Amino acid sequence: MFKPWVNPPTQLAPAPRGPVLRPRPLGDMDPILGQVGTLTPTQKAMLFVHGVILLGSAYHGYVRNENSILWGGSWAASALICPTVTTAFALSQGFGRPRKS
Questions:
Q1: How far is CA 68 from CA 1, 56, 82, 94, 95, in A?
Q2: Contact 26, 20 (CB under 8 A)
Q3: Could you read off the pLDDT of 33-66 as tens digits, one per residue?
């Protein structure tokens, strides 16, 4: 008996349906908000501490270099990469004090 490789849709047979697509809420698509719900309290506390270090380093770089936004951003970027060393440098330079000329 002959069996065709493909079955073309005809008026006699309904066309095959694909999966039913449903709109997803933003919380399902956002990787950050989707992960925050699964963090432990300790992880949330460490994330908060890292954010405070990042903002403090940005402030220190901004004030130390005569209100330069570029330097504030570079200090924030360095705090994002290595927060402990950046904090140590900021404290050793006198946190939030302008550079002496």
A1: 82, 15, 21, 17, 16
A2: no
A3: 666 677 789 988 998 999 999 999 999 999 999 8
Q: Is pTM beyond 0.70 here?
A: no
- Give the amino acid at 100: K
Measured CA to CA, the distance from residue 53 to residue 39 in angstroms comes to 20
Question: Please, are residues 90 and 76 in contact by the beta-carbon 8 Å criterion?
Answer: no
Query: Do residues 86 and 57 make contact, with C-beta atoms less than 8 angstroms apart?
Result: yes
What would the two tokens of residue 5 be?
């490789």
Q: Which sign does the torsion angle of CA 51, 82, 32, 35 carry? A: negative
CA torsion angle 24 25 27 30 (round to 10): 60
